[in-house]
Description:
Structural class: alpha+beta
Radius of gyration: 50 Å
CATH architecture of the domain at 427-579: 2-Layer Sandwich
Protein name: histidine kinase
Helix content: 55-70%
Largest sheet: 5 strands, antiparallel
Distance between the termini: 51 Å
CATH class of the domain at 427-579: Alpha Beta
Strand content: 5-15%
Pfam family, one: HAMP
Number of strands: 12
Transmembrane segments: 145-164
Membrane topology: Multi-pass membrane protein
GO biological process, one term: osmosensory signaling via phosphorelay pathway
Oligomer: single chain
Order of helices and strands: HHHHHHEEHHHHEEEHHEHEEHEEHEE
Shape: elongated
CATH topology of the domain at 427-579: Heat Shock Protein 90
Amino acid sequence: MNLKTKITLAFVTMLLLLLGVSAFTLFSLNRLDRTARNVLQDNFYSVELGQRMLRALDSVQTAPPVALASFREALTREAGNVTEAGEQVVVDSLTATLARYERGPQAATAARLRTLTYRMIDLNTQALTRKNEAANLAATRQQRYVLALLTFALLTSLLFVLSVPEAAVGGLRKLTASIENATNQDYSSSIPVESHDEFGTVARAFNRMLVQLQDYRTSTLAQLMAERNRAASIVNNLDEGLLLVDEHRRVLLVNPVAAELLGQPAAGLLGQPADELARHNDLFRELLRHLDTPAAQRPQEAAPVLTLARNGEEVYYRVAVNDVISFNEALDKMEFVGSILTLHNVSEFKKLDQAKSNFLATVSHELKTPLSSINFSLKLLQNGKVGSVNEEQQRILATIKQENQRLLKLVGELIDVSRLESGNIQLNFQPTQVHDIVQFAADTIQLQLQPKQLTLDIQVPAELPPVRADIEKTTWVLLNLLANGIRYSPEQGQLHIRAALAPGGQQVEVLVQDHGPGIAPQYQEKIFQRFVQIPDKTGYRGGSGLGLSIAREFIGSQGGQLWVESELGSGSTFRFTLPVAG
């Protein structure tokens, strides 16, 4: 809140208090006046009519017709001014008694009229006394209210009188002291920024000026130019593309490589808004997409690779985005000042990766045929169709067949890897129930549970919505996770399969949990990389290191995610999600 608003609010508050006190005082006076008028109108008038009725009774002996007429007139008016409890009964009795007296005047009847008249006067006199006391109490109470309101208004006014002037001059004192220090060439005495009002704005501007004065004092123009030329020379001679965007998304720096890739001169890019450039440049639009990705969601190990055309051939650049955080001495805190986008040429590495992929694909296809032939020959030997085989030979054949099966599995995984890398993997999407996939995988894995006497605990609600998935690939993923769980589970242990609707209701989450040794935090992401095997104290080195990598690719290509949650000594939980069919 700025100072002007504070002062305005103070005056408005005092004005409202003044109006409130005045309005309440007028209301109290008006209320007391209405009470007094009602007393005069109701009870005092009845007393006056009673006096007239008594005077009429006094003269009834000397002038009967006139006295009775006067008495009846006063009684009629009293009948129209009944205000107190029991007064109506007295008026009715007076009316009836007057009627009897007019039919036959008697002393007893006249005495009765006088008694009833006194009773009526007494009722209104008591009411006058009671209402007068109530009015006095009301006046005292209103007086207290007015006094309390005046006290509150006075205290509030004193508060504003003491605080508002201090707020107006306190900042000036700090500014005066800091200016005095700056006059003595002491630029370290900045003004504490304690508010967002006018003085806060002045303090921030003055602190920035002090920082600039300090910079100007500690560096010469020649040093600044030398540093600038050195930095410009380093940036311009980099073999990577480099762009610098400030916190307002304006381009501050573009080196020649980046300008060449963007197809525009550096002079035409400097100072331009990034959003404006992205409308007319596809590459800049792609770079801006990576820039807009939150830092927590940017890939840490495998940054995105862009395929660009340069000098008539395809080149590959890896995009990296780094936010620049600087310490603001004036505000004594870290501030975001911009982002650096780098384009690193990885064409040579990409060619090597493609050569590796081609080699794997070729070797895999070349090995699969002879391995299948060897496997068929081993079956013939084991069945004894080509001659008798003794027990030792059967054992050797079983060992050879087991190793041959491992080679066939490895070749199959290598073929899957090559298809994934080339983008030739074919997915057959169809709506399916998670329960069916889980049940098929559970039936398939039953034989592998027996050697360790493991049990499988399945909890998959039947009411889960169907998912859009490739049944074969998803079942392969689930079987791979179950096989890993069996491999690392202790004897007579238990494996768990759970499925539930993920938060948001757009995906179904499936988990496979074991009670094995667990996975250390530093390996929980690496196990999804190809050919990676983590150390195992039991001596088991696992398979090829491709299963989890392929599983993540299969799930990711179906629009889901695969990850692990684990602690050493507490087992592991592998989770994957699949989109709900819609």
